Amino acid sequence: MANRVTGPEIDTLIQLLAKLPGLGPRSARRAALHLIKKKDQLLLPLARAAAEAADKVSECVKCGNVDTANPCTICTDPRRDTGTIVVVEDVADLWALERANAVNSLYHVLGGTLSPLDGVGPEDLSIDKLIDRASRLKSVGGKAELILAVNATVEGQTTAHYITDRLEGLDVKVTRLAHGVPVGGELDYLDEGTLTAAIKSRSDF
């Protein structure tokens, strides 16, 4: 049995850090040690920021984003195109699109994808709320649009098809992200699925 080299408080810190994405036990130990060494510059400010976030951050009642305001700053931004909703799987996808300044629309976070093998059904996702929002979409000077920005996985595409079927009969244009060659990508390094999608999604030059 290995000798204990740290107190229970440090062990708890390491165990919690190890639960973060991309951090295993070894990385968590290194991160914990770095935080402790930089107690005044990192550990104490991090503890205060975490406590404040836990107290003030909540899930937006409209779109599912996380923010200190509820509804979130995106939903209440008057400059947004209220006739378009971008549907994403997770908040991380929403943030990625915002960082890229790709769209100036509203969003809807599903909270995952349909996965019968994992026991995830429509009732486990924010699909009913999405259909309700889509039915009330009003586009100024054009057709209301729902952009399905889900991942190009089997689960993502299954979810997209399910949502499309649920939207049938509504006066809403449904589009999805183009799947193909990434900017700077070389054909020789791409998988067959990406190449096939790129050919099918080809456009005029």
Q: Describe it for me?
A:
By secondary structure, the protein is an alpha/beta fold. It folds into 2 domains: 49 residues, Helicase, Ruva Protein, domain 3, CATH 1.10.8; 111 residues, Dna Topoisomerase Vi A Subunit, Chain: A, domain 2 (3-Layer(aba) Sandwich), CATH 3.40.1360. Helices cover 40% and strands 12% of the residues. It has a 4-stranded parallel β-sheet. The protein has a two-stranded antiparallel ribbon with strand order 1-2. Helix 1 packs across helix 2 and helix 2 crosses helix 3. The chain is globular, with a radius of gyration of 22 Å. The mean pLDDT is 89.
Radius of gyration: 22 Å
Characterize the overall form. Answer: globular
- Number of domain modules: 2
Low-confidence stretches: none
Helix content: 25-40%
Summarize this, please?
The protein has helices at residues 8-17, 25-37, 39-56, 91-99, 127-135, 154-166, 192-200, and strands spanning 58-59, 66-67, 81-88, 105-109, 145-148, 173-176.
